[in-house]
């Protein structure tokens, strides 16, 4: 029929004209679509193929016609009349055709000959033609039913003969013989097998083998696979054991190991054995459980098969997301096994991704995604903090473990050579990876900038190409590329200089075109412009690229007008105000810029930007947080403009101040817009400080913005004051709520917000709280400006301001170094007017040491100087500390700043010291003692001004006078917690005595020993007096802090020198030169507290017993908050106890030391003085020997003291003489009973006068 229709169609086409044929073709295409031709061609080819296959099958006889259907009743009747015919082993043997063995030189991937002539074809499908079905378990094969044998009376049974072979599946088969012939072929197991074999007729064994081979195994079974694919391999070959399915449970940890699906999600162990094989989760060595272990995943991630490697990269990416959630405290079910191992696993995962980063195709794309997930996605919460200006270097060191020497060149190649091979999304991920690496530390930033063509490739792809192609380009410029340049420029001045040379002109194009005229969407154009302004702000903070303000003057004027209009977004206005503030600071001192005079004050005045700023304030409300932040930014820019006028304008900018004040003063009147903004910001800030127990990052960021607003309005108030005014003005420029500002400063001073970065991990703090100093520095800048305001208020006396300065200065963080030095100079200027004994030359004496405490030169570099050939001079140049740019730029900071990024809170103490001396410690005024102690190596003494001339005694007197007066004035105003602490005072006095140590008298000399100077001795006694046991100052804790001296000593001792070594030298020096100096002896006692290690007590009691007789210190003179710290826990070291016993028996110890020795010896004798849970178990044998030694060798006072000594173990205060030698009668009675039972009645009789009678 098909052939007939085909012939008719061909005849019809032959009779048609070409026009008719074309018309018919168009109709078919309109009706069936353009793909109908290819579809008919495929159908025709398939039809011809099937026809050829059918013809071939007919010739070979494979397809024979079906036999006619038989009559079942007739067949059954015929079969019943047949005689039984036994199955003869003589029947011909049939074997399955075996596949020919592969040639020896063939490759594993050689195509079989049966498929050599096949071609690979693909269907022309649209996405709508593809439907993805859900996975289902494979249909099980139909099970073979084991039918029971028929009964004897069944008439329908037809015998097919007697089976005489051996069942392979059953090792033992017992057949009951029914005749003699059957007995000869009986098959049995066990020991009778050999007999049965012998009784078989000849050839029976071979016939049985033929019968076994003739049995066809079930398809899919291991035997079937062996016969089909490995016919030449024996059935019991161990190499085929992998095909057999064991019904026994697998050994080892395979069933309990954590397993993951293809999305990286964990599979519960109870489910892994039940999942079907169709899910693709059994393609591993242990095939009975679904899912992949970590070892499986990491192994397959290095597979040579790209598909396997790609899938495993996706699995690791999903697993990384879950680990990140678990690290942040979220609960992830079934992943408890990796709890606490997140960072370790993350390092293994990122190593797998980095290894495949250079791979092509899907493997490389998944590797980029995996590295992004480990580096960027993991730290997503921290990256925002890093962009604010703090290094993200952490203790786990994942980023440090990456090989940037491999990663950065690979990324550079992707952007410059293989850019078209990667989708845009992957290149964005690479950009974010580079951004995260740049936020780690300055070393990474330098490597990124130094990598050949890396930054140029990023800028070219993300910024220049979209901008040059315009709106027809399918993608817009990426603002994150500018953010990367900002982060790198903040890293260091040298990097900023390199970026200024390379990319300033490229970024300028985004400033010259305003968003309203940009070809890109307005949101994108606005963000690009704001980020570009931020980039120039960072460069300007180093004095770089400020010439742009002059060269692009017209564009900047239009930008200023647009930023102050209602069309601009708040983000854009803020960015412009910050840039203008930096440029104004650069113009104040044009010599601070690079190159000099790149921007001048005359041009700033000519541009008159401030007129537009005032108009902006008139149009801006103050209801939202962003609007109030904008008010603060405009106030800051106006303050910088007025400060510049004071320096560069005529008559200190008097005319400019008057004109501006005439406009601004009205706004600050009661209920004015500026006054309302200040009040609202203060309300918000005080409210947030009152609810700071669970601060989030967004809350703290908002608080920092409010602090900036208050800081800028105070700066504006101060900027209106005449430049040479001393003290409070006759009338304030405008009204401010001064009482509320003072309350805010007091709240900030004592607030716990300063302790958040050092706090242990607690649930109330969000992740990344250790990096909160990036926001806390805004509060420090506010306090620094408040001190300048407080000095101008009539209600603040000099004493009060001095107390404020000595306390608030401890809160100033890195970036405020310039403000700290100004406060110090003002303090030293005010101090001589308050104290008659204060040297007016204090500023000149202590100035170099205080400056070093703030901005120290920590390292010396040797430079070879010129000279003759015989002698070369070496000039040692001190390298200054890193200097952080302040939040409010100044001409000084612009010229000297080296970085704009805070050091990581996880950096070591050494790096913290090198970065900045802030925040200061309460003993900052005693910093000169550190340099006197190490005068031979002190950088300060090697670079003192020529006019500096002071002795060790002068420096010591001035330092202790300053410390003493500041401590007293702080206590007077209830600010004692910010004064010199007990341990700091003790160490400072110990330094005075250690000046006589033989290694420290090289650079500064004195005729007499410093500690014997009467003035120095009086100052030290006055400094230590409040810390004696009889008069602990308010604000001190009731219990001594463990290891306090060791902790404080670590700040001045060289790296690697323990405090124990310092104390050893101190005790040795006392033994050599003290001559029983009482203050020297007093300073020996603090390390003998039981809070310190046993080594200190061994050194004092065991190695220097000769000095005991020279120390005469009473308990009320000891420097302690509570004398119990010397008593508990009870001493248990045998060597120290022996020395204590010797000290009281030989009467070497006196007063306080005798009391301490009595206590520890008695506590090792009497069990009622101990607490087993705190002091350890009681050693009765030691107690007996100690009591015997005391009774036999001690004098009456010692024996009475030991027997009648008593302390309340659970009490708050220590009992001293005489109350400690008045034990109760019931206590003495129990002690008597113990003596009689354990020591002996003889000793009890000798002590009868001290013990109660029976």
TrEMBL record:
Origin organism lineage: Eukaryota, Fungi, Dikarya, Basidiomycota, Agaricomycotina
Listed Polar residues bias regions: 177-186, 194-203
Taxonomic source organism: Candolleomyces aberdarensis
Stretches for region Disordered: 44-156, 170-226, 857-877
Protein's name in the database: RNA polymerase II-associated protein 1 C-terminal domain-containing protein
Bias (Basic and acidic residues) ranges: 108-131, 205-215
Extent of Acidic residues compositional bias: 861-873
Keyword Ion transport among record annotations: no
UniProt KW Transcription keyword: yes
Keywords linked to the UniProt accession: Nucleus, Transcription
Similarity comment text for this entry: Belongs to the RPAP1 family.
Cellular localisation: Nucleus
Superkingdom of origin: Eukaryota
Pfam families referenced in this protein's UniProt entry, alphabetically: RPAP1_C, RPAP1_N, TPR_RPAP1
PANTHER family: RNA POLYMERASE II-ASSOCIATED PROTEIN 1
Domain (RPAP1 N-terminal): residue spans on this chain: 3-42
Record InterPro entries: RPAP1/Rba50, RPAP1_C, RPAP1_N, TPR_RPAP1/MINIYO-like
GO biological process per UniProt: transcription by RNA polymerase II
Domain RPAP1/MINIYO-like TPR repeats: 1007-1164
Domain RPAP1 C-terminal: 257-320
């Amino acid at each position: 029929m098909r052939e007939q229709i085909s012939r008719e169609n061909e005849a019809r086409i032959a009779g048609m004209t070409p026009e008719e044929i074309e018309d018919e073709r168009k109709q078919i295409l309109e009706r069936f679509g353009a793909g109908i031709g290819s579809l008919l061609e495929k159908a025709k080819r398939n039809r011809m193929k099937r026809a050829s296959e059918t013809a071939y099958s007919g010739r070979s006889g494979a397809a024979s016609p079906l036999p006619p259907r038989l009559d079942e009743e007739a067949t059954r009747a015929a079969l019943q009349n047949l005689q039984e015919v036994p199955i003869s082993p003589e029947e011909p043997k049939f074997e399955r055709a075996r596949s020919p063995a592969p040639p020896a030189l063939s490759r594993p991937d050689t195509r079989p000959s049966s498929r050599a002539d096949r071609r690979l074809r693909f269907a022309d499908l649209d996405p709508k033609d593809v439907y993805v079905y859900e996975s289902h378990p494979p249909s099980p094969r139909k099970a073979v039913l084991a039918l029971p044998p028929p009964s004897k009376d069944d008439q329908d049974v037809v015998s097919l003969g007697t089976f005489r072979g051996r069942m392979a599946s059953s090792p033992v088969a017992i057949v009951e013989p029914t005749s003699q012939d059957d007995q000869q072929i009986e098959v049995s197991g066990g020991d009778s097998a050999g007999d049965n074999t012998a009784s078989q007729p000849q050839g029976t064994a071979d016939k049985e083998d033929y019968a076994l081979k003739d049995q066809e195994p079930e398809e899919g079974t291991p035997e079937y696979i062996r016969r089909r694919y490995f016919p030449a391999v024996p059935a019991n070959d161990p190499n085929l054991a992998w095909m057999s399915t064991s019904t026994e449970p697998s050994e080892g940890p395979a069933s309990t190991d954590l397993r993951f699906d293809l999305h990286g999600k964990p599979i519960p162990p109870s489910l892994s054995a039940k999942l079907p094989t169709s899910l693709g989760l059994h393609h591993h060595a242990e095939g009975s459980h679904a899912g992949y272990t970590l070892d499986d995943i990491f192994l397959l991630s290095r597979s040579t098969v790209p598909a396997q490697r790609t899938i495993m990269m996706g699995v690791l990416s999903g697993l990384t997301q879950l680990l990140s959630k678990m690290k942040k405290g979220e609960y992830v079910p079934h992943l408890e096994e990796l709890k606490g191992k997140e960072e370790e696993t993350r390092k293994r995962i990122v190593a797998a991704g980095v290894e495949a980063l250079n791979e092509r195709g899907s493997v490389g794309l998944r590797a980029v995604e995996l590295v992004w997930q480990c580096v960027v996605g993991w730290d997503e919460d921290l990256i925002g903090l890093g962009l604010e200006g703090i290094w993200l270097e952490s203790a786990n060191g994942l980023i440090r473990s990456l090989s940037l020497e491999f990663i950065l060149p690979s990324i550079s190649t992707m952007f410059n050579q293989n850019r078209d091979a990667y989708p845009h999304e992957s290149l964005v991920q690479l950009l974010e990876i580079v951004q995260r690496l740049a936020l780690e530390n300055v070393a990474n930033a330098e490597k990124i900038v130094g990598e050949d063509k890396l930054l140029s490739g990023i800028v070219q792809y993300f910024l220049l190409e979209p901008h040059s192609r315009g709106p027809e380009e399918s993608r817009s410029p990426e603002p994150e590329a500018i953010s990367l340049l900002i982060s790198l420029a903040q890293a260091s001045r040298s990097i900023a200089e390199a970026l200024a040379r390379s990319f300033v002109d490229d970024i300028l194009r985004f400033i010259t075109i305003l968003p309203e005229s940009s070809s890109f969407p307005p949101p994108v154009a606005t963000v690009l412009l704001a980020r570009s302004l931020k980039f120039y702000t960072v460069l300007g903070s180093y004095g770089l690229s400020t010439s742009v303000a002059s060269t692009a003057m017209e564009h900047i004027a239009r930008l200023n007008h647009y930023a102050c209009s209602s069309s601009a977004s708040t983000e854009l206005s803020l960015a412009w105000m910050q840039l203008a503030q930096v440029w104004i600071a650069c113009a104040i001192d044009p010599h601070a810029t690079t190159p000099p005079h790149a921007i001048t004050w005359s041009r700033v005045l000519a541009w008159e930007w401030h007129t537009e700023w005032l108009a902006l304030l008139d149009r801006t409300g103050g209801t939202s947080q962003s609007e109030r932040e904008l008010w603060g930014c405009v106030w800051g820019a106006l303050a910088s403009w007025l400060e510049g006028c004071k320096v560069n304008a005529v008559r200190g900018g008097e005319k400019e101040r008057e004109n501006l004040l005439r406009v601004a003063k009205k706004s600050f009147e009661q209920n004015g817009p500026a006054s309302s903004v200040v009040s609202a910001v203060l309300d918000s800030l005080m409210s947030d400080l009152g609810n700071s127990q669970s601060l989030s990052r967004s809350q703290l960021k908002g608080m920092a913005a409010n602090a900036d607003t208050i800081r800028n309005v105070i700066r504006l108030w101060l900027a209106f004051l005449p430049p040479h005014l001393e003290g409070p003005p006759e009338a304030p420029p405008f009204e401010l709520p001064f009482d509320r500002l003072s309350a805010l400063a007091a709240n900030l001073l004592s607030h716990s917000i300063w302790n958040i970065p050092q706090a242990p991990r607690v649930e109330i703090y969000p992740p990344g709280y250790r990096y909160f100093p990036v926001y806390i520095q805004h509060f420090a800048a506010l306090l620094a400006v408040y001190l300048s305001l407080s000095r101008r208020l009539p209600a603040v006396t000099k004493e009060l301001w001095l107390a404020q300065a000595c306390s608030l200065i401890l809160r100033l963080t890195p970036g405020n170094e310039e403000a700290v030095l100004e406060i110090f100079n003002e303090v030293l200027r005010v101090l001589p007017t308050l104290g008659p004994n204060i040297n007016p030359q204090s500023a000149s004496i202590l100035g170099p040491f205080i400056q070093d405490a703030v901005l120290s030169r920590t390292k010396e570099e040797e430079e070879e100087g010129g000279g003759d050939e015989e002698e070369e001079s070496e000039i040692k140049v001190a390298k200054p500390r890193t200097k952080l740019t302040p939040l409010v730029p100044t001409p000084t900071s612009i010229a000297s700043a080296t970085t704009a990024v805070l050091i990581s809170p996880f950096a070591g103490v050494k790096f913290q010291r090198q970065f900045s001396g802030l925040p200061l410690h309460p003993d900052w005024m005693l910093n000169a003692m550190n340099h006197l102690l190490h005068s031979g190596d002190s950088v300060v003494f090697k670079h003192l001004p020529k006019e500096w001339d002071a002795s060790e005694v002068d420096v010591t007197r001035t330092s202790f006078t300053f410390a003493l007066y500041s401590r007293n004035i702080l206590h007077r105003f209830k600010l004692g917690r910010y004064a010199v602490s007990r341990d700091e005072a003790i160490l400072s006095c110990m330094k005075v005595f250690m000046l006589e140590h033989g290694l420290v008298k090289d650079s500064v000399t004195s005729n007499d020993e410093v500690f014997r100077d009467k003035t120095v001795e009086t100052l030290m006694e006055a400094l230590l007096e409040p810390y004696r046991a009889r008069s602990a100052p308010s604000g001190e804790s009731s219990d001594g802090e463990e290891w306090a001296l060791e902790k404080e000593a670590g700040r001045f001792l060289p790296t690697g020198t323990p405090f124990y070594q310092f104390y050893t030298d101190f005790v040795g020096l006392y033994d050599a030169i003290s001559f029983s100096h009482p203050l020297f002896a007093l300073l020996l006692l603090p390390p003998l507290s039981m809070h310190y290690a046993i080594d200190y007590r061994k050194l004092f009691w065991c190695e220097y017993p000769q000095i005991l007789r020279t120390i005469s210190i009473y308990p009320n003179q000891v420097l302690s908050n509570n004398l119990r710290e010397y008593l508990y826990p009870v001493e248990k070291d045998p060597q120290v106890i022996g020395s204590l016993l010797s000290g009281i028996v030989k009467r070497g110890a006196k007063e306080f030391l005798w009391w301490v020795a009595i206590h520890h010896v008695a506590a090792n004798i009497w069990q009622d003085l101990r607490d087993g849970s705190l002091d350890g178990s009681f050693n009765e044998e030691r107690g007996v020997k100690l009591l015997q030694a005391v009774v036999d060798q001690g004098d009456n006072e010692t024996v009475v003291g030991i027997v009648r000594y008593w302390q309340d173990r659970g009490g708050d205060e220590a009992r001293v003489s005489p109350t400690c030698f008045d034990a109760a009668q019931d206590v003495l009675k129990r002690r008597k009973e113990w003596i009689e039972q354990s020591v002996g009645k003889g000793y009890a009789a000798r002590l009868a006068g001290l013990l109660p009678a029976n």
